[in-house]
Design a protein that fits this description.
Length: 289
């Protein structure tokens, strides 16, 4: 079996990354950081043309591949092509995603399904496609880019949060399953970064009854929004994948870090207040005949 970073001929190569949503935002920052480290990158996106400048600079180390991650068959094909070209996969970053904004009541069926198709099923198909290769290697690291939205449900991002909650539930199970084969998995929960996530947001048709709430939310965002350079997230990712013992979860940003603790404390306080009711709802009895 080839060792990590070594080809069949024995030549030493950098790690091989497989990054979805690589052409913009955090995915672009991750791609640039991996290339700067001397690694090889399979940059996956529906439109790979924004990667043209990087491909010219790194013709032997960047392989742009176009694919719609919501197409399961196409995902399996592109993973097979990545392995054929570079021989292995070391780090898989499920970064592709989008934000569908709107109150839960406002979502059409098509919009709700589209949100899950990209944020959840896209990551699921990639995870399924890469696992046979990672299992055969006995190594690898899957990084699931989640969101601050997976810490809790927030007004106007309910379906986005739901898709990220689903991603994290699936990923926790996958982490336990993959560990038996030497494959690591980390869920990364970023805060705000200056990407085009919000510029490319798909919005529902507004229901006027929510106008006061929307106005209040806009005021809160204007006063409390904190966004950082994607480069900082990429630096954190490089530290994560360099670790021999990476965590199951990693928070990115002080705001999301504090929010995670606040939400956890609120939940524990509520559970404690309702402890008697919770415990009274369980009592072992013989199996019914």
């Amino acid at each position: 079996m080839e060792t990590a970073g070594q080809t069949a001929s024995g030549a030493v190569e950098g790690r091989v990354w497989f990054i979805t949503g690589a052409s913009r935002g955090l995915g672009r920052a991750f791609t640039e950081a991996a290339l700067a480290a001397g690694d090889r990158v399979v940059g996956v996106s529906r439109d790979t043309s924004p990667l043209g400048d990087l491909a010219e600079l790194h013709p032997d180390r960047l392989l742009p591949l176009s694919v719609d991650v919501t197409d399961r068959s196409a995902v399996f094909d592109v993973v097979a092509e990545a392995v054929r070209q570079f021989g292995r996969l070391d780090i898989v970053v499920n970064n592709a995603g989008a934000l569908y904004a709107g109150m839960v009541e406002e979502f059409s069926e098509a919009q709700a399904r589209a949100q899950f198709d990209l944020n959840f099923f896209g990551a699921l198909w990639v995870s399924q496609a890469v696992m046979p290769q990672l299992r055969a290697q006995g190594s690898g690291h899957i990084v699931q880019i989640s969101s601050i939205g997976a810490l809790g449900g927030f007004p106007s991002t309910g379906l986005y949060s739901a898709s990220k909650f689903a991603l994290e539930g699936m990923s926790e199970a996958l982490a336990a399953e993959a560990a038996a084969f030497g494959v690591k998995l980390t869920i990364v929960q970023p805060g705000g970064y200056w990407t085009d996530l919000y510029a490319n947001t798909t919005a529902t048709t507004p229901n006027p009854v929510y106008d006061p709430l929307r106005a209040e939310l806009e005021k809160q965002w204007a006063e409390g929004s904190i966004d950082s350079e994607p480069r900082l997230a990429a630096e954190a990712l490089m530290k994560l994948v360099a670790s021999d013992t990476p965590p199951l979860r990693l928070l990115l940003g002080s705001m999301v870090y504090d929010l995670a603790f606040d939400i956890s404390q609120q939940r524990m306080t509520t559970w404690s207040a309702w402890e008697d009711v919770s415990r009274a709802a369980e009592k072992a009895v013989p199996a019914p005949t």
